[in-house]
């Protein structure tokens, strides 16, 4: 096949990725976009962005997140320098990276398997998969996109180095770039080793030494920027209730979450931006139906991987892609900062897409089933694309996102709180109060919402209840100055100046 003919397929899936998500160009900043992009001084100049290599990803005074992604910060700084500080340019950057990832998906899968149809169907699904909308339509998803692009480039470079007998320096450099974009790329060399073994190529230690060197460089850079802080110390029950529930409950919950993410890849009817407390109650009993469901899915994955080893290269690679790229953020090995997030399935879902593409190609290879396979592929890609197109506008801004998703996920305290905050900012105090109260029903120790509800009640003319919530906010978060100031002002207005002075004296300095 000629060069232009070979290029049309990756261009096609890249164009499909762009067309499906182009609506994101009309979106503004939402959720983490605000601190990471809109208000982040680290990306305001290319010179300043170099400090990202010696700084945490979330550089918040007094808090430690254990995240180190300097290349993502640099990419945002370059994006801002090229396109201006408005959201459209950053969304455009995400679209281009997603299109590149989809095109690279075709190139890598085409080299892994021998069937054009399987690679094309898989890459087409990857381009439009609805679970990807969080990573693509939210600018903060840049880490997922950049890491995926670099991992796929490293995979292609690894195969070329292996087939030509060249050194693995280039793929190791690309792997290092992926690590500096997001930590979840750490097991990429294990995937390359699986690919080598399935291709009856011996995974020689000398071939993998450069990857060990890249990992060591990333570890040293991380140590310089973060110190010995390696775990998700900032994980709190609100964001990841499983983290504080003990190892057994954490693993059971993680298995159930994996099953839910796999289901969302296949049936993305309900997508939401937040799964924190208490959207996914912690799974504590091994005999609970959710525990059994999670174990059944895990067992099926394990059985599929064992049965397919050396019998079906595409199925083995598909299973390896999901497991190796999902495992670092799964909460199975250690606690992470979130119990579940759709963006975490971005690169792992390539395994699901590859399996689907392989099955569709297998259907098409049967006599008289070619047209059926093509029709099924077109129908599936179209349906997934339509769901993604419908989901992208939900990420327009914080108010739209919170009020949309809280309907689908009413048991999330953070979604209820977010809806209240953004409704209050838009002058809808009565609606905001209702959401604040629901958030506190779900999570009574939500210090920030006790404060916000107290302020709202004080403005509404309910000083007694406002005082109660402000004092509760102080008890829960004594280092936060805001509730002290609000309570002192409330007491001053009530003529209780001695009490107000006492509150100010107790406030943190």
Explain this structure to me?
This protein is mainly alpha-helical. It folds into two domains: 3-230 and 239-395, no CATH class; 398-506, Alpha Horseshoe (Serine Threonine Protein Phosphatase 5, Tetratricopeptide repeat), CATH 1.25.40. The chain has 23 helices and no strands.
Throw out a few tags for this protein.
single chain, about 500 residues, mainly alpha, Serine Threonine Protein Phosphatase 5, Tetratricopeptide repeat, 2 domains, 23 helices, globular
Describe, in short, the structure shown:
Helix content is 66%, strand content 0%.
Give me the secondary-structure topology:
Blueprint: H1 3-21, H2 33-38, H3 46-49, H4 70-83, H5 87-112, H6 116-128, H7 133-137, H8 142-164, H9 169-179, H10 188-198, H11 205-226, H12 247-266, H13 289-308, H14 313-326, H15 349-364, H16 370-391, H17 398-408, H18 413-425, H19 429-442, H20 447-460, H21 463-476, H22 481-493, H23 497-506
Helix pairs in contact: 1-5, 1-6, 4-5, 5-6, 5-8, 6-15, 6-16, 8-9, 8-10, 9-11, 10-14, 12-13, 13-14, 14-15, 15-16, 17-18, 18-19, 19-20, 20-21, 20-22, 21-22, 22-23
Number of helices: 23
- What structural class do helix, strand and pairing data support? mainly alpha
Strand content: under 5%
Shape: globular
Largest beta sheet, briefly? none
Order of helices and strands: HHHHHHHHHHHHHHHHHHHHHHH
* Helix share, percent: 55-70%
Measured between the Cα atoms of the first and last residue, the distance is: 71 Å
Domain count, please report it. 2
- Mean pLDDT equals 91
Low-confidence stretches: none
